[in-house]
Write the structure tokens for this entry.
Amino acid sequence: MPPSKISYDLPSDAPRSVLREGGIEDGFIGKLQGLKYEYRRDITDRAALERNFREKFEALNRCRLTDSEFARLVEIITPDVFAASKTLRGINAFTRDDFTPLNYTLVNIKDWRKNTSEVINQLRVNTDNIRKRGPKGERRQRESIEPLPGRLCRGKHQYRRQTLHPSLTGSR
């Protein structure tokens, strides 16, 4: 595979020998802004992301969704890239709470030039932390990741997840 021709601009105060994730992210966002992406600094959590999605969806489809309709609509989000791209490019159907059909699109498929592109910083959607307390103050189970012996994947170990009870980890 040929080397990438993409270069990242480092902040002027960063040492040249150290490349930090934040610097790569800032450079990437800068490149996307150069391609006319709108940088949305205000989207910092899942609630803000869903609020933005709802506003854009309702404006594009000229409708107002109830909270329960929106909750069902959010369920279409999938990590499967093929299914997501199919949903993104087509006209989809949705049954509203009053049993009327709603045919919707997620982008303007009639005039692609009217679509806008937005970029945000990395967003941690699953914010469950292993140090948070569960119901009634007990600790949640910890998850450990350990290498699988004898299995290599491109020079790195494959990993399996194990759920361990806190009493087995030796920490409280």
